Amino acid sequence: MDREQVKRWRALRRLVETSDPQAQAQALHAASDSSRAAVLRTIRTAGMGHVGGDLSVLDILTCLYAAVLRVDPEWPDWPDRDRFILSKGHCAAALYTTLAHSGFFPPSALGTFMAPLSPLNGHPDRTKVPGVETNTGPLGHGLPVGVGAAIAGRLAGSSRRVYVVLGDGELQEGSNWEAAMAAGHRGLDNLIAVVDRNRLQQGARTEATNRLEPLADKWRSFGWQVSEVDGHDHLALLPALAPESTGRPTCVIANTVKGKGVSFMEDRVEWHHKVPSPQQTEAALLELAQ
Length: 290
Known about the structure:
alpha/beta
């Protein structure tokens, strides 16, 4: 834990909670771009990473940790905390950056990403990193684990919620739809799935690889309530991520842009798994600073 960073995180939470919408949006936008810059530096230092998907998901992660999730970096094992699972575990750099900026561990540790013996592996490991709830890497595993966590919360009589962020290409894994069917059958209204809908996967567009649309209708057919939002609009994300209970699980389809915030990376499939050069990193950081 980083106590000074925890103080900054708590101050951001208070600001978002008490401010008018314009101030909320400004604070969350600044926090997201700060995380984007940290991710770029982290991946550049490591020489590996999944920068495109990291940048597309960061507005979602920022809203969750700055305003929505009931978590406490000073007590990461708090029994009644909300559970967060990043099913698209290859975007670990985005999660680590968000956890570091929330004070779960010092931001300086990001410089060890993927280094030998570093706890910050290429995929999150719950035994090594505080704030990580379950190991993710093989796609299609996060939502099934989230369903189990939601059932466990219900059995414990807890008010905690379970949040799972999925990649859209990941939805081509059948295990997700088995989990969605089980969640709908059980009416798990403490479960929120968020789809990072950037429409690109490794090598091609999702719709060219294995068509997902009509995606919202698919979730509804399994008994979920569904909302579709701009995944980079913080003020649209906030209410979508904290839905009123209707007795059904919730799916938020967050329409995003892969590589968001860096013009030469946006909506470009080659940035799924590519490391920016020093010159590209400098240019990207200049864009984010504007």
